[in-house]
Predict the 3D structure of the following.
Amino acid sequence: MQQSERRIPQIGIVMGSDRDLPHMEKAARFLRNLDIPFEMTALSAYRCPDRVREYGLSALGRGFEVVIAASGGTNELACLIASYTTLPVIGVPLRTDEGEASVSRELAALLSTLETPAGIPVATVGFNAVINAACLAVQILGVKDKRVRARLEEYRESRRAEETEKARRVEEAAREHHV
Amino acid sequence: MQQSERRIPQIGIVMGSDRDLPHMEKAARFLRNLDIPFEMTALSAYRCPDRVREYGLSALGRGFEVVIAASGGTNELACLIASYTTLPVIGVPLRTDEGEASVSRELAALLSTLETPAGIPVATVGFNAVINAACLAVQILGVKDKRVRARLEEYRESRRAEETEKARRVEEAAREHHV
Amino acid sequence: MQQSERRIPQIGIVMGSDRDLPHMEKAARFLRNLDIPFEMTALSAYRCPDRVREYGLSALGRGFEVVIAASGGTNELACLIASYTTLPVIGVPLRTDEGEASVSRELAALLSTLETPAGIPVATVGFNAVINAACLAVQILGVKDKRVRARLEEYRESRRAEETEKARRVEEAAREHHV
Amino acid sequence: MQQSERRIPQIGIVMGSDRDLPHMEKAARFLRNLDIPFEMTALSAYRCPDRVREYGLSALGRGFEVVIAASGGTNELACLIASYTTLPVIGVPLRTDEGEASVSRELAALLSTLETPAGIPVATVGFNAVINAACLAVQILGVKDKRVRARLEEYRESRRAEETEKARRVEEAAREHHV
Amino acid sequence: MQQSERRIPQIGIVMGSDRDLPHMEKAARFLRNLDIPFEMTALSAYRCPDRVREYGLSALGRGFEVVIAASGGTNELACLIASYTTLPVIGVPLRTDEGEASVSRELAALLSTLETPAGIPVATVGFNAVINAACLAVQILGVKDKRVRARLEEYRESRRAEETEKARRVEEAAREHHV
Amino acid sequence: MQQSERRIPQIGIVMGSDRDLPHMEKAARFLRNLDIPFEMTALSAYRCPDRVREYGLSALGRGFEVVIAASGGTNELACLIASYTTLPVIGVPLRTDEGEASVSRELAALLSTLETPAGIPVATVGFNAVINAACLAVQILGVKDKRVRARLEEYRESRRAEETEKARRVEEAAREHHV
Amino acid sequence: MQQSERRIPQIGIVMGSDRDLPHMEKAARFLRNLDIPFEMTALSAYRCPDRVREYGLSALGRGFEVVIAASGGTNELACLIASYTTLPVIGVPLRTDEGEASVSRELAALLSTLETPAGIPVATVGFNAVINAACLAVQILGVKDKRVRARLEEYRESRRAEETEKARRVEEAAREHHV
Amino acid sequence: MQQSERRIPQIGIVMGSDRDLPHMEKAARFLRNLDIPFEMTALSAYRCPDRVREYGLSALGRGFEVVIAASGGTNELACLIASYTTLPVIGVPLRTDEGEASVSRELAALLSTLETPAGIPVATVGFNAVINAACLAVQILGVKDKRVRARLEEYRESRRAEETEKARRVEEAAREHHV
């Protein structure tokens, strides 16, 4: 990793609450492994709407290329930031707190991230899919930077090798232990 | 109706788009019948977030006692206004445009209005339930003004009379025409 | 808190069963913190419909300004009270008993609270959203009493400070521990 | 049909609104065909709760053996009557008004009829299943009256003959017209 | 309880598997408390369709007045028995095995019990609502036997007394412990 | 096509009602195009359970290799036949009658076909997917008969050619008419 | 069982990940009990699409008669294999990892297996229904091999005997312990 | 618009069928208005998997920066292309053919686009949200090209002006015609 890349974070990650940190750490690890500089903070869309507004308005000026917004409630965070910037915004619907999990909360998170008005898209990934949010952000950076794309190709290759190993384990289990 | 009441609108009605006007006209008629002064406008939460912000911040100063926010997409409009004011905000999930109706859009509208973070409530009514939104707004005004409550009691009484008439029609149909 | 306020409860809280008490205690704490006098009881809508009827008919006379009705089954409690009073009624769909949680029960609670007939609104909040039910009740009281609204503004301000602290924690975690 | 049976209606049919009459006419026709005396009226559970109460309390005294309650909103009508009588109550969730049909309204009607508290059962039939509501009512009368059961057996037999005819039509279509 | 009543079971209870016994024991206890003679067995609708057929065909001859059919999968058991008898059949959708609980399985159980063809009704009660299945069966027996109805009235009265006690507990908790 | 193949139908198609014929004609056409002999009839699972039983018990003896069962209600037809034969049974959930379409009916059809007990599988295809039911039946026949498989390969090849043509049309539209 | 049968696996089982092995072992045991030779491997549809392609293209040549494809995400595995072969492909939607279970993931697995384009059927079984996937595969082999069908009949017979035993246990529990 | 930009399409649009063209024309118009060169074709993921593979493998070499994949069934098209390229892939779940619209088909399209395995993200937009798919694609291009971002800002500004006009219309309607 080059120092210079480090200094200007290319990806801004915001989450609805510090309780979402365990989820978002997985995204952070993914980005570090691919050597992508990023920044993380917490923002509550409806409790502090003005801070969300400032975040959205300043995102471009701070050098971000992409924003990832994750939230366990209805994902107004992603949508509100998207309404203040023309940077691509990736939304991740999360299950924040297992004890209060409910069908209505899950669907609210999922659908409210997807169903934005025409002209204000949010690139939505699956429920809790923080790795895919980070991966998509890197693929978007790859549009500009060929070295980033090369790192992604390496990552994919290593995943394929893992898959071959998984196949070997299953085949062996079937043969040796007669499953 | 007294002129003086008219001059300061007690209820602010906002809708996501001018396409929602046919729905909201029913609410408007309800309010006029009960002689409640109100004001209506259209606001797109994510296309013009700063106008929504101004609306929320100025609602109290303009004399509103309650705000009704209706939207056919995810109802960030109600939530965003609620985040800028401590006035009670009533949210109505709408089906804006029949031709594009979908299950995911309906559930998104419904659940995103309901599932706001703790401390930022939105008083949600049923899908397309614009009469109930207006009626709830008037019931809230009744907390302050006994004459309003009296008018609501009259309205309820008239509805009960209509119901008695409906019952008579059904009973007659069953008897005379042997259904 | 002034004694005089205490004596006449402004908010009536009813729940479907004493099993709902742990949920409703959170609402009670919220109201005490904001110094709002209230009363609580349990009522089973369909097992004791006449007691619900009496509750609804007497609510205004007892000095209530708002009623909060919470129930873990279909929320006929909120609707039935609403049919006997023109006070604003807030409905909270609850998950009463974790061991019997089911999708149909959750949707039944949610949708039966929302889908009341025109003219009988129930101000519905999210699933298990007892804090928001209490907060909405206080916002409605604020329509009449400026001191209540001032307390709400303070509450919001304190929440915003908490959010800033959360953001600081997340940013620090990202920096110091390299997430 | 004997006159004496006619005079005391054995089944009470209530519907939420006179708009439900086209649906309930099918049930009425079914009962007339099997020569079962019945009575029909309209009752709005939440607009006229006291009339619903009286209906429930007087049902036994009026000679009803079974009550059928049909409603297009949340089916509090069936539940509320069930809470005032120990007669069997059959609930039919209806779609009243096609123009306002919505998923949330359909699920609300269905689930609110089913999910009653323990001790207050409502015998629920499928969405819009008015024939089955009437048929179930007659099957319940058959518990007491063997002649009613015999008529049901005849009805079933005639349906079976119709089914054989349907099969013949399909088989012929496949053979002659090569489908 | 009279011996003679005991000898001829009035209610036949069938369940899809012996794993459903813990659920159905609650129904059995309810019936014993009201002194209603019944019989229980297990039948797998699709594994032993001929035994289900025999059960349905012989139900009337064995003296049953009502059949309760409970099943954790799709409730073909209730429907298939209903297709072989004109006795009223009550269907209870169950969650058999917590470890394999899924949304699709719950909805399959619920909807397949409700959605029977016209002329073959199944009186459906809520998910896992075994008490209501038993209670509904007794209400149907009450159509024929006034003493049974009297016992149901006593049962309801005792439930109302319990509810009053619950209310007292909640009110006390609110007062004494300041909730 | 050889005459001898024609005489013994290899596929038995049953539908719940003659109203399903327009749907099933598409399956019939598919089979004729691939020159597969079949037979069609209508059977109402719960109205004529004994005819369904006979169908299931005789299916093997009549020379069927596969059975396709289609139904617009809950698909007990497929399941019940499957319980009487060890032939592969393909289930197609249908929407029979557009005017009464409902979410609960669609999910009931879909889930009741899928959720059969262990040991009684039904090979389920998508909602209204009659072509796929027929195609799957032919693929199963192909396990035994190489000529059938060859015809399937030809069919696939012709579909691929159609797809290439579709692509050409879209590309042309984009180029010439500037979309 | 003949040795020669053993050597050429008749059923190919693929799963999305080695984490699915505990589920698929149940299918494997079922096949061993009925003495059907099979092979198992793991394939990630989107991580290694070319290996899935090769699997589909070579399935016929390797002697498979049926393929079972199981996956915990969207079941593109079954569909993609089905697009490369005219062998019957059975799809099993799985819940892979309990900790991340969600409604959207369950419905995605279920519906994406069912909803394939016309001409590319996947024989879908219920959620987690691995026994039924294996059983259906054997029923398909039975189309070609009468001895396999005979073994299936024996298996069914033994299941029926188990059901009779279950019924006995329930009846005894009801009698002796008075439930 | 510069000619040179025109020659190398920056966005590849694929749709599942030529029936999707009316939907995708809206996306095409959006791109032309912002002067973004693109290419369109139709690909059936499961009918022609090898053509999808080639499309994915060649996308980078043909100069695409982003791919938009739209499909009315389960959106394997987006996922499969995403598995063959590290370019960002945007998925649009569509309702292709109104006549066969169903809840299961809508949810299948939506959820199968979202729920891809970790490492293979698809940037999903709402149901039928073709404008947002195009807009997101342009926002991604804006990461590389400042002039594109400037055009997006202009577009947003013009939308805001339209919104102001809508608000004016609603306010006028409320004032002049007294709604």
